[in-house]
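Q: How would the structure tokens look for this protein?
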Amino acid sequence: MITNPLSHWNWHDKKIYWYCNLNHEQTWNESKFFPSVTDTSQLHLILQQEQQMIYLTRANDTVLFRHQPDLDFWLYLQKQGIQLPNIQIISDFHSWYRSEQMDRSAMIVPYMVTEEFLPCLQDDGCSVYGSNPALVKFLNNKLAVRKFAQENGFTTTKGYFCGGLEQLIDAYRSLTLQGFEKTVIKIPYGSSGKGLKIIHNKEEFNRFVAFIKRRIHTFTELVIEGWYTIERSLNAQLLIEDGNVHLLAVTEQHIDENAVYMGSDFTPQYNRLLVQKYRNEMLRLGHLLKDMGVQGVLGVDSIVDQAGVLYPIIEINARFTQVTYLLPLIERLNKEHPILMSRFLRFCLIEEFSFNEIYECLNLHLEPDSSNYFLVYTFATNKEGGKTNYRMFVLFYGSDRRKVQSMMNAFLAFNPISFKN
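A: Here is the predicted structure in token form.
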């Protein structure tokens, strides 16, 4: 079941500006709990995921980009039947907003409503789609959401809130005694593997404790949970609009060993009883959130463990997600193609390749046929240090699951160098 959210939005002739303020959650964490190295090249590539907004826009909407899309890629999308909106390149949202003469009927649709939109919310120049920033921040807080799930009777994973180092050490010991070889430590904010650290064994835990002792003398709260062997990794797309709760989609997420999102199966096969239970829990969650005053789009991450136990709320993303932006495209393709999956790949090349060269190599490598296809739906590049970094998301779709899976596996092993000359 895939539903296009545009069918629920009563926007008519309203002027819409789309803006993708990715990665803002990381700025909310007050302490640096985890060792990290900033990869500026990857940050530039991730920024270009704003391309995904185009799949949810209408022809007369305006998309605010902070990068210049590749022209060949843009022409490729048009040849694939993708209707492109108006594109406006900006360097900074606040500068753009101050310089625009905003129509009172216009609306900004951000990836996530944050405090940076307070000037828009406080004047009468335009509206901002979604919940108020404080509520959005609360729902994106992993710790707050765990408490919310427990208080409202949702099944939650084994875990403990820790207000200091001694509590953390005791909680880890308790989880290992309960049979958990691996654990995960979570801080309030971060998505796609950020804001958490997977602990594989006692030695790694001891190194983490030593790091905390060196860097952070006191901390208010974090949570440690047992790491479950995951049988299924579900995602629900909820829309709360005009007092109604809509379940737009249930998809299967593909997550790597570091909990980083790698892609989705948009047409997963689930046990009927599981689907019904999950649907009921998501609608119950949606109505609880509606009563809190939440509105707009949310993504909910959930898991089923090896024992078949459903944990409906691992975290809530009170914002648009990559899946949300693709829903109109998925809904349209699914009418003729029963199998749809996506994956992303990044690679680095000394020799620069154009999009057309990459696509030609990819077409030779994947070998699509008359009923199984692929679509490159984001194409990001960044030159640095004499090399070019690439980041691509590809949608695979068709009627033969084995062929679609084969193309996807081939994509993950793709390197255009092997096709040169």
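The longest helix spans residues 272-292.

The chain has four domains: 5-135, 158-226, 230-323, 336-414.

Upvote if useful.
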